[in-house]
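User: I'll paste a sequence; please echo it back and then give the predicted structure.

Assistant: Echoing your sequence first, then the prediction.
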Amino acid sequence: MLKVLYVDDQKENLTVFRITFKKEYKVFVANNVEEAFEILNNNDINVVLADHRMPDMTGIEFLAQVGDKFPLIYRIVISEYVNDEIIRNAMKAYDFTGCMGKPWDNEELKALIDKAQAG
């Protein structure tokens, strides 16, 4: 079973994600970057999703650091602004697996996460 970590500063998004995907994956959630790195250091995570707009660090910055420390983890940025040039450029520069808009479509997000299993 894939181990998936979702990082978002909005707790209601974490709750919705956990409830939606708990039967499909082993779901981990973190409310901030510090919690996320603690989870990453103590678990064999396959996929990390991160909200782009967070107070401590942007999702792009966080996912770039994840890629440096854990190069085999699939990384997905979640944002209300998926067509933002910054996000498009970061996806190429940091080789993110994908990008998903907010609110996300459950089936599309599942297909993006499942790339890790196929990949």
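The domain at 3-118 is CATH 3.40.50.2300 (Rossmann fold). The radius of gyration is 13 Å.
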